[in-house]
Amino acid sequence: MKTYRFLVSGKVQGVWYRKFVSENAKKHNFKGYVKNLEDGRVEAVANIESPERLEEFLELLKEGSPFSQVEKIEYEEIPFIEFHDFEIRY
């Protein structure tokens, strides 16, 4: 199990993006959180079990809500954090 941090750029605030990510991450049994950043990006942090699950989470982030427009996703592995659910943080 690894923990990754994702930074999502584009039209991702004020368009229900966090809610979309949170609901779909829960449906697919991901654990972690999503939150808005002051610079207009969205940060997501999640526990990822395998390269296939990493691709699945990236696809979820790319899809976004109907009114969002994802332009760029940067991600990196970070020190392990244990999560028990997926939540929206404020």
Structure description:
- This protein has helices spanning 17-27, 51-63; strands spanning 2-11, 31-36, 42-48, 69-78, 86-89.
- The relative contact order is 0.36.
- The mean pLDDT is 98.
- Strands 4-1-3-2-5 form a 5-stranded mixed β-sheet, with helices on one face.
- Helices cover 27% and strands 41% of the residues.
- The chain is built from 2 helices and 5 strands, in the order E-H-E-E-H-E-E.
- By secondary structure, the chain is of the alpha+beta class.
- It has one domain: Alpha-Beta Plaits, CATH 3.30.70.
Q: Tell me the total number of β-strands.
A: 5
Write down the Rg. 12 Å
Put simply, the count of helices is: 2
- Uncertain regions spanning at least 5 consecutive residues: none
Task: Summarize the amount of helix as a percent range.
Answer: 25-40%
In terms of structural class, how would the helical and strand content be classed? alpha+beta
Query: Shape from CA axes?
Result: globular
The major beta sheet can be summarized as: 5 strands, mixed
Number of domains: 1
Distance between the ends: 26 Å
On the 0 to 100 scale, the average pLDDT is: 98
